[in-house]
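Bumping my old thread because nobody answered last time. Still need a sequence for this structure:
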């Protein structure tokens, strides 16, 4: 049997290779770290907490999630408070915590109560929605976020998967006031609301379908005009929380949304 001290040192050396991994973590290194199991957790936490930027902390968070390291829950929640939504490690933590599962619920709900920063709470909503636990307190928090930011939180509700949310989504759809514009990026909230309703097993009423088609007319005109000028995969613009058209698997809002919006504005597509 390998001595514990030797195993620990070997795990640390292996994990420290994350510092030179760059944007894409090699599969061989990921497998080597995961194979270390519990021995890899302390050095992964060290990188997560000590490295201020770069890809290494994000890789560390992802691996801690894959290892389902419950001791990493509080450190990751603490770092989530300190970072912004557009930082690499912030998004990595949001993706990692749900992989740990039900043990995340109580610490995340407590963090939600203790910090009233909306962006942090919104990130926690995504975590709670994806952790696979069913708890009415989670649904209550998600509905609370939905009242403030319907478009993004609608997808939290869809991810959580409780059909009781359909009623709230449908009411929000009905209450939504169409934005009078010829610009293709208006009325995006309806895309998120429809997607969430359908993911939860619901469907639009005929009047809601008419409203949706009316709202999407400028976007459809823009899509048809652009279809001849861009590759087919870019002809259809996804919702903000859907995977980006480029195939990165990153949410569209964190990938090509800003560039696409700048392109549309630069072409004078907005009225």
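Sorry it took so long. Here it is:
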């Amino acid at each position: 049997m390998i001595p514990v001290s030797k195993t620990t040192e070997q795990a640390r050396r292996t994990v420290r290779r994350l510092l030179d991994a760059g944007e894409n973590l090699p599969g061989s290194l990921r497998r080597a770290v995961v194979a270390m199991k519990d021995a890899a957790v302390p050095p992964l936490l060290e990188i997560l907490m000590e490295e201020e930027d770069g890809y290494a902390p994000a890789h560390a968070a992802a691996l801690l999630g894959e290892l389902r390291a419950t001791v990493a829950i509080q450190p990751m929640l603490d770092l989530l408070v300190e970072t912004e939504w557009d930082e690499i490690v912030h998004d990595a933590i949001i993706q990692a915590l749900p992989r740990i599962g039900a043990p995340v619920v109580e610490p995340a709900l407590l963090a939600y109560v203790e910090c009233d920063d909306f962006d942090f709470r919104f990130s926690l909503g995504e975590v709670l929605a994806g952790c696979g636990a069913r708890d009415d307190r989670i649904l209550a928090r998600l509905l609370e976020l939905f009242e403030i930011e319907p478009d993004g939180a609608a997808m939290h509700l869809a991810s959580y998967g409780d059909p009781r949310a359909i009623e709230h989504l449908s009411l929000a759809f009905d209450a939504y006031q169409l934005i009078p514009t010829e610009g293709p990026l208006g009325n995006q909230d309806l895309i998120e609301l429809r997607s969430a309703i359908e993911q939860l097993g619901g469907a639009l009423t005929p009047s809601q379908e008419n409203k949706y088609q009316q709202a999407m007319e400028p976007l459809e005109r823009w899509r048809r005009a652009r279809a001849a000028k861009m590759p087919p995969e870019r002809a259809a613009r996804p919702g903000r929380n859907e995977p980006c058209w480029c195939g990165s698997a990153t949410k569209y809002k964190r990938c090509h949304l800003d560039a696409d919006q700048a392109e549309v504005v630069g072409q004078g597509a907005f009225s």
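The radius of gyration is 21 Å. Let me know if any region looks off to you.
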